[in-house]
Design brief:
By secondary structure, the chain is of the alpha+beta class. Helices cover 35% and strands 30% of the residues. It contains eight helices and nine strands. Helix 5 crosses helix 6. The protein is globular. The two termini are 17 Å apart. The relative contact order is 0.20. Keywords: Acyltransferase, Transferase. It comes from Vibrio hangzhouensis. This is dTDP-4-amino-4,6-dideoxy-D-galactose acyltransferase. It holds the Pfam family Acetyltransf_1.
């Protein structure tokens, strides 16, 4: 029912575990309490549960879990067949991209206080960008740069069969409302199309109203809503 999140635990230097909401459905409150009690002191137990799994949500509340953030998944079709070359991030841009990623998600993330510090939040998204540039988590990081070679925005992407996944999409605050986000979205769709994907998805936080409005304006449709719950022991 509870599994160790080894990478997360090592990265954040704390014991992080994940509770499976599907397995939670078939247990009584007493059984679930026993499982929680068996976790080591100092653990942070996380659970992501779909919004329509009402019995699991009710049980999480009774177990003392706190609602941290909601996540909405948007889906769309990979119908972009643009042929102009995509601009992939280089190692030379890594520090600039990491600096941008470390600040743009401070207000919209489940990695928030009191469970995670501002610095841990910044380090996590900087690491995500590093791995995307290396192609070791997301497959690639596509960038938009100015004539002066300044990074104005980025989008990270990966594929699974005929499905594309947008990991992160962000535009530098001073370059927002210039159409750069839509340009990056089109580049991501082109990447997926070139990889043979038929559809794609992207997650964003329910608290991130600008992102929700943006994905809706791009023709994406909401396909799922889930909630993140935490319990610190």
């Amino acid at each position: 029912m509870i599994s160790d999140k080894s990478w997360d635990s090592d990265f954040f230097n704390k014991k992080i575990k994940e509770l499976d909401p599907l397995e939670l459905q078939g247990t009584t409150l007493k059984e679930a309490e026993q499982v929680i009690d068996n976790c080591e002191a100092g653990s942070l137990i996380q659970c992501k549960v779909d919004s329509n799994v009402f019995n699991a949500i009710e049980l999480l509340s009774k177990l003392g879990f706190e609602l941290v953030e909601g996540a909405i998944t948007y889906s769309g079709e990979c119908n972009n067949s643009r042929t102009d070359p995509l601009s992939y991030a280089s190692e030379a841009q890594a520090e600039e991209l990491k600096a941008l990623a470390s600040v743009v998600y401070q207000d919209y993330s489940r990695y928030r206080q009191p469970w995670f510090s501002h610095q841990q939040n910044a380090d996590f998204y900087a690491e995500w960008i590093s791995k995307a540039i290396e192609g070791t988590f997301d497959e690639a990081c596509i960038t938009d740069t100015s004539q002066q070679n300044e990074v104005r925005g980025f989008v990270t992407v990966r594929t699974s069969g005929e499905h594309g996944i947008i990991g992160l999409l962000a535009v530098h605050p001073k370059h927002q409302k210039k159409g750069i986000a839509k340009m990056l979205m089109e580049q991501a769709k082109a990447y997926f199309h070139n990889k043979g994907c038929l559809h794609f998805s992207v997650d964003t936080q329910l608290s991130n109203l600008p992102a929700i409005k943006f994905y809706a304006s791009c023709g994406c449709k909401p396909s799922n809503i889930a909630y993140w719950y935490y319990k610190a022991k």
